[in-house]
Structure formats: structure tokens, C-alpha cells
Request: fold
Amino acid sequence: MMTKNFNDLALLLMRLGFGGLMLTHGIPKLSKLGDSPIEFPDPIGVGATASLILTLIGEVVAPALIVIGYKTKLAAIPAAITMLVAAFVVHFSDPLGTKEKALLYLIGFVVIFLAGPGKYSIDKK
Reply:
């Protein structure tokens, strides 16, 4: 009987899937950095510029690190926090269907934080 363990492959797929798909949400926001003045939602009251920068860390920088598997557990923290804010602050009064995507990303980034990057990562080289 074959007893091959696919956990490392599963972790690679988690990193590529959640990190890569999150980049599709974050990368378009990079162009907002050139706007003057910066217009961006400020859900936690730190100002539009700071909100945009924090969002870009959570939706571009952290996911890119997660995809390549570098400082993966650390990178999963801002990605998860960004999705926590999206689900429970930005979409607080919205129906579950609206906040579902943020919740799914949140769960994925928490799993990545808890499980680590797996052997197919820069962290494990």
C-alpha cells in the first residue's frame, strides 16, 4: 500500500493559491500610490495614505512573500489582519455573501501561518 505524504505539496498549493489570488486584488491598488491626493477608504481611522500602504502590505508584499515561501509565517500575519479588517470592519454590516471572500482568505492565511510553508519554499532551503 502506498503511504506517500502530500502535506508539503498541499502547503505549496495553499501558498500559491491564496497568495497568488490575493495579488490580483492588491496589484491594481498600486496605481493609487500615484494619485494626488490619495483617495482610499480609511476603515480604521489612520488616514487614506496609511490605509492604502497597510492594504498594499497585506495584499501585495505579504502575499508575494507567501508565494515564494520566504518569511512565510511572518508574512501570513499582515495578510490575515488585512482580511480580518475587510471582513469585520469594511464589510461589517454587509451580508455573509459579501464578506465571504475575505473570510475565506482569512482562513487560508491563518492555516498558512499555523502550518508553515512546507519544504517547497525558500524558508526550507
